[in-house]
Amino acid sequence: MFKDLDPILHSQLRLSIVSLLVGLEEAEFVYLKEKTNTSAGNLSLQLDKLQKAGYVSIKKSFKGKYPVTTCKLTAKGLKAFERYVTTIKSYIHL
Amino acid sequence: MERQEIADSINTIEQAIQEARKVPSGAYFYDILWGTILAFYYLVNYFSLTNPDALISKFSHYYWVLFPIGGIISGIRSKQDDIKETAKSIADKIYLFAYSGFAFAYITIYLAAEFNGLNAIVIPVFCSLLGLTVFVTGGIIRESLSIIMGLIGMIIGAYILKMDIAHQCLFASLACVMTSIIPGIKLMFARV
């Protein structure tokens, strides 16, 4: 039997966020919103779930006068992503 | 597990990774800037050692000022990039660590060589370290031109080991053009 896929990552939007962050040092909220083509509210909700799972760290700061939310993949998030990809690969080899 | 779901997940991962790769690295700017400063600096040193009466040689004691100017320009550029960028590429972090390591290694070797009266090894070591840094960063970001130029830089470093300081300066200038300016220009045009 195949290992179960991580329910946190097994959502297209959350998977998309994590996949973007895998290839980046860090990304701002506006970048993720633009690339995932989703609403701010939905993105915020999904980022919150990823943060609670310990997959993403979120830092709030200021760029000049404007508030900025920066997201970064954690080591736990990277491991979870690698596990997810391995599981997916095992499905393909069926 | 539906076959369609697997296909969707793979698609999502592939698209996102491709998208993240499009985040441009600003490293080319520093390559060109510092490559030009160092190439010019070594070239001036070559002229001042071989032809002290030339006009360019008469100001050779003042060319060190290019380094703080380069530092200020780099600082301003870095701040501008921070304001503009909404995502930071991994390549920028690789460059930061690689070139910080290069600078640290070069400064320690330079000080040790000065202290021990081994000035003749400083420029060959500079070329080798620069070549190594360009080779490694080129390998990580998959830029074959940087890999080749990095190798050439290391070869220049070995080749000039027994030369007099003036000719070492001339070859160091050439090494800066090959390892920094040429790959920098290539990276500038390769940006998305």
First CA to last CA of chain A: what distance? 10 Å
Radius of gyration of chain B: 20 Å
The biggest chain-chain interface is: A-B, 26 and 23 residues
Shape of chain B: elongated
> For the largest beta sheet of chain A, what order do the strands appear in spatially?
1-3-2
Q: Quickly give the structural class of chain A.
A: alpha+beta
The percentage of residues in β strands of chain B lies in: under 5%
Helix content of chain B: over 70%
Summed over residues and divided by their number, the pLDDT of chain A gives a mean of: 90
How would you classify the helix and strand content of chain B by structural class? mainly alpha
Helix tally of chain A equals 4
Largest sheet of chain B: none
Tally of structural domains of chain B: 1
Subunit organisation of the chains: heterodimer
Along the chain, the helix and strand elements of chain A come as HEHHEEH
Distinctive features:
heterodimer; A: alpha+beta; 3-stranded antiparallel sheet; 3 strands; B: 192 residues; mainly alpha; 8 helices
Q: Could you characterize what this model shows?
A:
The complex is a heterodimer of chains A (94) and B (192). Chain A is of the alpha+beta class. Chain A is built from 4 helices and 3 strands; from the N terminus they run H-E-H-H-E-E-H. Chain A has helices at 12-22, 29-36, 40-52, 75-92, and strands at 24-28, 56-63, 66-73. Chain A is elongated and about 50 Å long. Chain B has helices spanning 3-21, 27-50, 55-58, 66-84, 90-116, 122-140, 144-159, 165-190, and one strand at 87-89. Chain B has 8 helices and 1 strand; from the N terminus they run ααααβαααα. Chain B has 192 residues and is mostly helical. The relative contact order of chain B is 0.15. The mean pLDDT of chain B is 90. Chain B has one domain (26-190). The two termini of chain B are 37 Å apart. Chain A binds chain B through residues 2, 5, 10, 12, 15-16, 19-28, 30-31, 34-35, 63-64, 85, 88, 91-92, and chain B through 1, 6, 8-10, 12-13, 15-17, 19-21, 23, 82-83, 86-90, 92-93.
